[in-house]
Amino acid sequence: MPTEAEMKAVLQKYLDAWNAGDAEAVIALFADDAVVHDPHGSEPKVGKDAFGEFFRNGAKGGLRLTLDAPVRGSQGDSAAMAFTVIAGAMTIRVIDVMRFAPDGKIVEMHGYWGQTDLET
What we know:
The protein is α+β, with helices and mostly antiparallel strands.
């Protein structure tokens, strides 16, 4: 199992890759069979093809992510972060919870946000 510091480092790489517009670097942080629930409760994106397309489409929109609080780790296999997505004039307040495999890859992502978290 990755350490708390290792999980936090992966989430920092996730933020950095999004802010660089590098969808391929975001995708590389995930296991090939990972499941992405974004937003939580929507149809899951299962496997690299599905979540890869989702991330590539997001990167085309020029998304920028700004942390609202420090990345939080755990004593288990998960870490979380609260951040704001900026996409042009739209902002979305989000909390992502990531679960990690022993090799440090993300195997599951839950993005928590709803309509009341959107501002235009």
